[in-house]
Amino acid sequence: MTILYTLVGSVCALVFAFLLARYVLAQDSGTDTMREISLAVQKGARAYLSQQYRVVAMIFAALFLLLALLAYAFRLISPFVPFAFVTGGFFSGLAGYIGMTLATKANAKTAWAARKSLNSGLRVAFFTGTVMGMTVVGLGLLDLSLWYALLKLAFQLPDDQIPPIMITFGMGASTMALFARVGGGIFTKAADVGADLVGKVEAGIPEDDPRNPAVIADNVGDNVGDVAGMGADLYESYVGSIVATMALGVAAAHSSTRGLQAITMIQIPLAVAAIGVVLSILGTFFVQAKEDASQSVLLAALRKGVWFSTVGIAVASFLYIMFFPGLGRAYLGIWTAMMCGLVAGNVIAYFTEYYTSDTYKPTRQLADTTLTGPATVIIGGLAVGMKSTVIPVVTVAASILGSYFLAGGAYNPVRGLYGIGIAAVGMLSTLGITLATDAYGPVADNAGGIAEMAGLEAEVRTRTDALDSLGNTTAATGKGFAIGSAALTALALIAEYDQKIIEAAREVLPKMGGIYAEYARGFSGAFDSGLTNPYVVACLFVGAMLPFLFSALTMQAVGRAAGAMVQEVRRQFKADPGIMAGTSKPDYAACVGISTKGAQREMIAPALLAIFTPLVIGIFVGPVGVMASLAGALASGFVLAIMMANAGGAWDNAKKYIERGNHGGKKSEPHKAAVVGDTVGDPFKDTSGPALNILLKLMSMVSIVFVSATMVLNALFINLFR
Amino acid sequence: MTILYTLVGSVCALVFAFLLARYVLAQDSGTDTMREISLAVQKGARAYLSQQYRVVAMIFAALFLLLALLAYAFRLISPFVPFAFVTGGFFSGLAGYIGMTLATKANAKTAWAARKSLNSGLRVAFFTGTVMGMTVVGLGLLDLSLWYALLKLAFQLPDDQIPPIMITFGMGASTMALFARVGGGIFTKAADVGADLVGKVEAGIPEDDPRNPAVIADNVGDNVGDVAGMGADLYESYVGSIVATMALGVAAAHSSTRGLQAITMIQIPLAVAAIGVVLSILGTFFVQAKEDASQSVLLAALRKGVWFSTVGIAVASFLYIMFFPGLGRAYLGIWTAMMCGLVAGNVIAYFTEYYTSDTYKPTRQLADTTLTGPATVIIGGLAVGMKSTVIPVVTVAASILGSYFLAGGAYNPVRGLYGIGIAAVGMLSTLGITLATDAYGPVADNAGGIAEMAGLEAEVRTRTDALDSLGNTTAATGKGFAIGSAALTALALIAEYDQKIIEAAREVLPKMGGIYAEYARGFSGAFDSGLTNPYVVACLFVGAMLPFLFSALTMQAVGRAAGAMVQEVRRQFKADPGIMAGTSKPDYAACVGISTKGAQREMIAPALLAIFTPLVIGIFVGPVGVMASLAGALASGFVLAIMMANAGGAWDNAKKYIERGNHGGKKSEPHKAAVVGDTVGDPFKDTSGPALNILLKLMSMVSIVFVSATMVLNALFINLFR
């Protein structure tokens, strides 16, 4: 029954997305120049994505073979796993691709609509964002429902065998998302930094000036990074939170003393998600304003939509869960656990905005540091980012304790952990609409770029800037949800890994006999993952180091790719003085090519780090070491991700604050200092920071999927020293 | 018997320090101008320290009263504890004070000696550093031996009651060290940044130019931060590693099945430290070179001294521990555990140098990033810092596992934890000589400043610069030891806290009856600190956030104090144009006063954070939460401290590399970009980074000392919800 609802919910979302997309596509794309630029961006973005998918396909093929080996030759995992992995990757990529395709077409349309009024511009951009939001949640829910229906109805698998396969689906989605985020992030920031450093700083031409050879690459970057990357990322977050909770649901049912069934526990996260989709659709209808609406009225309209959805989900899910068959009195605990997540998400979102918006003190004070030069801007921004971690961390810690105990963790620990998973699902239940308000930002940003390049009236640029700045505020909200839910989901996955260790030790390894059975005995009951176990502390350290290494790799990748871009832009300016004079056209495609190549080359190492570290630790240190390294990575990575995202946001908005005429405005010394901060913040907030969220979940999922295989190899390794 | 040896060892160190100090003081201070400048620095430094001690004395008085209340009114801790706390603080401050007093007198003498030859300059500076090194280890060992002798012989306390009192001694030392590091760090960086931003960047006058009003404050800062702060810091590290190991020794003896006695286990760390002191003294005699020695010959001489001490300690401690009464066959395990620390310290030191010295690739590549402006320098430096965490973290993780299992942790977990403590003691056993090579750097740096201000020949400045650059290399080594040993010591302290929870639950709370006895039952055996306990994960997050918050507070403090300094320097330049013309003298004292006031005001909040956070978590969440937050803070703080120290070192040396004529040399655009990096790195490497090491240990010690009190209050708090 629930499956029917989720199918209906997902189809509603996809149909709604289709209708909106048709509306957007029917809009006018403006002048010939605008069409031409828009086409160049579309071509560049498609070229990049097809190149990226080619590289990723090879890696997926290799991992598919590895999984197939484990499934068919060694029978250590279910035969469905390799296919679940590949489909997860496919749909994650598809969600990004659909959103991006529309976004690249909608940018010129938004610019043209903004000629009419601010509200018209908002409508086109917001509808484009909504298509992305609905595609992500619609596809996510559809894929999960179909896999579930397939395994349960067509293959008649028992309920407790389904979630492990679904986790592999999530792992596929995460793998794709990591490549999309890292690759897209490197592309966009290399282009952005390259364009700014030579164009703005050296040549002294304004942003989005058509004479800048990297300008098209910069616009392509916004689409492949901030749209396609974000789409794949949030698809992964959404699917990940649901599959992690489903998996814990099986364990919670097994250990239940109240007779809760696995089927009940598995279906609740799907049901909550379905309710969220429907309420998100309804919420978008509240985003309306009169033609002559001001910026603050538009922001209020966006907020009204999100608030309607949030309250609606709270009420609807209460009624639904209360009458959910087989839950009995447990319904209240599960609903309150979900509410912990929903409330925590909004608290984090509010404080993310507080620390990154120039309407509040922290960013204003950061803008003041520009008066004493770039060094104080950097110190100030890092300090703001570090300080901004306090409230999100404490909020997540409180919602962990809250959802655990409300869900009944005091009586049944596994149900408490299930409650944490439900909190993550609750936090992401509004994703359909929060992602819509998030994804429209890059569209507005690009519209501004096209308006500038096509030489539209200054008023249009002012309007798209207003939309963009609105987008920065709502994007901060979106990031808050992404980071908070990542922490809860990763935690649920670590708990699930703990279950899987015991399961493998009880059911898989004993059958292999000999050293394997002997090895398994130590893990078949509760094992010591306490903080005085030397394996735990040693691997906690190693785990805590991984997010730093990952960030270093991604930041250096951006640096190298941006360096190549700087060289190319300088070369073009030098080779053809006609470019600066405006008499000849720069070679845009060469710059797109350089960013593409750089991103492809550089995204491999960080991604492999995420996939292979848990395997290496698992084989040479053992499952307790893996668990501790996951916890260490989660603890430091969560804080680092918030720090990077918020420092980046604060620098960006401090710069914008100055550009609006404060502290001397554009081209003043303070502005130059602010640009340094913004440039440092770019890879922070758009490459390393968001990719960390995916890293944490992917590492956990890899550990779960390969748990039996690594335990077998660990047993072999230990036996070498006997 | 061991106590006699340690007393002899400590007296040797102090006598040696006294003789060297007499030699240094007998040197010529040079011209009248030099004497005058040196006197101004002495006066400023003394003024600062006496102001700092006044503020700290009040905080110590408050904590003394709190401890006295717990000891005498509630009888929750030993009556010796309040006095141990105060003496620890006193001697930590004294170690810094002695070192600093000599350093402020030796700077002019070093400059004058450098007129003769590089080697003569090195001798005076190195002897001054050696006085510091020997004072720290001599005083540390003396105080520990005296307290031990007093409690054991005069008060006849049983062996297992002594270490808890000694831990409070360590807590006193850490509290003082935190104030010294944070206060001194804020002072020195505010003065440095203030002097550079207005002097070098705005007014375009060279570093150490006497026309700069902040120049004396800058020199005072080197002494109160890099000398007095470092002295207190390393006194704390040294004492902390020994008392933590002594405390675990009692628990290890209690749980021993081989009949090991507490007295044996307590005395071993003292014995290893005493051997280290003697070998460090001998090692300094190897630091000799011919009069016309080049820089690389001098570096080799410094290294020879350290290597002699290291090998000597390895051999001597093997012989000593082998024949140690009552150890039996356990000697080999304990010696190899110690060697894990000694080797790990050297590995970390080597790679710290690799990442921060401009003779290797990372810093060279960082220098290359200056070609594309300050933003890429910042991104590059952060990436180098983050990448440089890999090897130290893996090394420490390996030495945790190594020392744990070599010391017999597989059979007796507590002895394994004791092994980790012994590894920390082993790592710091060479402190006498490594600190000497570390502390001479600031002396050489100051000598250069005085040479510049007094207008000595350019050749002298070249020589002091060479000495300073040598000092940067050896300082990197010193930092490696400080960070590595902090991780091991903090871990040993967390393990000791775990023991103390059980002890309090078995021995203290049951006697109080009622809700307290009931509460205690849950902790009287092994309790669940596993990674699926929600309290553990929630507090792991909160703990991991603390180092970020602490760094934010200290960096913002530097920013604010530097801002005040910038205003003052600008004001002086504006009020009296004669200053720039060189006809009238700037008001140096005003700048010293501003840095002093700023440091005093700003050091309070971060220090209180360290002291009160574990208490608050202990009362409202409970002891498991405290343990998890300590582990979380250790995991993220350890990585963050390495990152900050190494990024700062790399930026500093990249700037120096350019100043030697690369990429256009001084005053070129790349140099300006490098200065931005160096300025950001200053608070990283000299304020926030090193203070993190102290923070981690202080938090653990506070938790241990207040364990019974927080458990009583936690029981009360929980009872509120019944």
Overview of this structure, please?
The structure is a homodimer of 722-residue chains. With 722 residues, the first copy, chain A, is mainly α. Helices cover 84% and strands 0% of the residues of chain A. Chain A has one domain (2-720). The longest helix of chain A has 55 residues, at 458-512. Chain A is globular and about 80 Å long. The interface between A and B is large, with 83 and 84 residues.
The shape of chain A is globular
Looking at how many chains there are and whether they match, the oligomeric state comes to homodimer
Radius of gyration of CA atoms of chain A, rounded to a whole number: 25 Å
Largest interface here, residues on each chain? A-B, 83 and 84 residues
Strand content of chain A: under 5%
**SS content category of chain A:** mainly alpha
Count the domains of chain A: 1
The H-and-E topology of chain A, N to C, reads as HHHHHHHHHHHHHHHHHHHHHH
Largest sheet of chain A: none
Mean model confidence by pLDDT of chain A: 91
Percent in helix of chain A:
over 70%
Question: Which spans of chain A of ≥5 residues are poorly predicted at pLDDT below 50?
Answer: none
The beta-strand count of chain A equals 0
Please count the helical segments of chain A. Answer: 22
| Distance between the ends of chain A | 55 Å
